[in-house]
Amino acid sequence: MIPIKTPEEIVKMRIACRIAAEVLEKMSNFAKAGLSTQDLDDFGRDLMREVGATSACFGYAGSKCKYPAYSCISLNDELVHGIPSQDAILKDGDVVSIDLSLFYDGFVGDNTRIVRIGEVSSEAENLSRTTEEALIIGIAKAIAGNRIGDISHAVEMHAKENNYGVVKEFVGHGVGKNTHEEPKIPNYGRAPTGPTLKAGMTLAIEPMFTPGNPTVYVCDDGWTVKTRDGLLAAHCEHTILVTNSSPEILTLVKK
Ligand code: MF3
Ligand code: CO
């Protein structure tokens, strides 16, 4: 069953997601060469505390152990679920995805941004930009009456057109009272297949592309996911609301 949010729940989702976007934007602006990913996570943890939000990552039960930090910070060849560390020092040319997911007033806002540290290589920039474009292209398909496969297919086509690989092991998801709700939203698939979208669904869409072989593995820490070939990986994410017209991107900072 894919939850359809009531108008009251949608109001709460809008607030949780906006707060998630604000915290993520502040973390992204804070990121710079010389800081550790632990410094970034500490900064995010403090911001969440200040606004009365709690991390949706901390304590999340994985197959091996609970997630030990407040955000996921994945560097270069890390795709997702990078565990912040005192030993991971940001340097110019790094590409870092910050995945910030929080609870506020009983609802989850989930978003991920790709942050470039200083000047990055053209390979890294192209991969990052293409993944960001795919997110927008996928979101545009999230309209009532369309199907999940329409989103998946659009995202996959944008990777293929740019000769990038699509990671298959990790997918987007419904989000609301829980971090992960139905449906799963793969970044590949056929249109028009899968569940039909309805107004009131809230979805986390999260393309994950690589320049080489998209095979990934989970490290011994039980969380960090890396590319098998050691090449870069890119991941970004928004939480959106399906409506009868244009989708509403919920994880935006309102100026
Ligand atoms: N934001 C992550 C997602 O999109 C949440 C991961 S939970 C964690 O699935 F424990 F892995 F951090
Ligand atoms: Co997510």
Q: According to CATH, what is the topology? A: Creatine Amidinohydrolase
Tell me, what is the CATH class?
Alpha Beta
Structural class: alpha+beta
CATH homologous superfamily grouping: Creatinase/methionine aminopeptidase superfamily
Largest sheet: 5 strands, antiparallel
- Total helices: the number is 4
CATH architecture, please? Alpha-Beta Complex
Going across the biggest sheet, name each strand in turn: 8-7-9-14-15
Helical fraction equals: 25-40%
- The residue-averaged pLDDT reads 98
Q: How many distinct beta strands?
A: 15
The N- to C-terminal Cα distance equals 35 Å
C-alpha Rg (nearest Å): 17 Å
Along the chain, the helix and strand elements come as: HHEEEEEHHEEEEEEEEEE
Bound molecules: 2-amino-4-trifluoromethylsulfanyl-butyric acid, cobalt (II) ion
Summed up, the domain count is: 1
Low-confidence stretches: none
Shape, per Cα inertia axes:
globular
Report on the structure:
- By secondary structure, the chain is of the alpha+beta class.
- The protein has helices spanning 7-30, 37-51, 122-140, 148-161; strands spanning 54-55, 72-75, 78-80, 95-104, 107-116, 165-166, 172-174, 181-185, 202-205, 208-210, 216-218, 225-227, 234-235, 238-241, 248-249.
- It has one domain (7-249): Alpha-Beta Complex (Creatine Amidinohydrolase).
- The protein has a five-stranded antiparallel beta sheet with strand order 8-7-9-14-15. Strands 1, 2, 4 and 5 form a four-stranded antiparallel beta sheet that branches.
- Helix 1 (7-30) packs antiparallel against helix 2 (37-51) and helix 3 (122-140) runs antiparallel to helix 4 (148-161).
- The radius of gyration is 17 Å and the shape is globular.
- The structure holds 2-amino-4-trifluoromethylsulfanyl-butyric acid and cobalt (II) ion.
- Cobalt (II) ion binds next to loops.
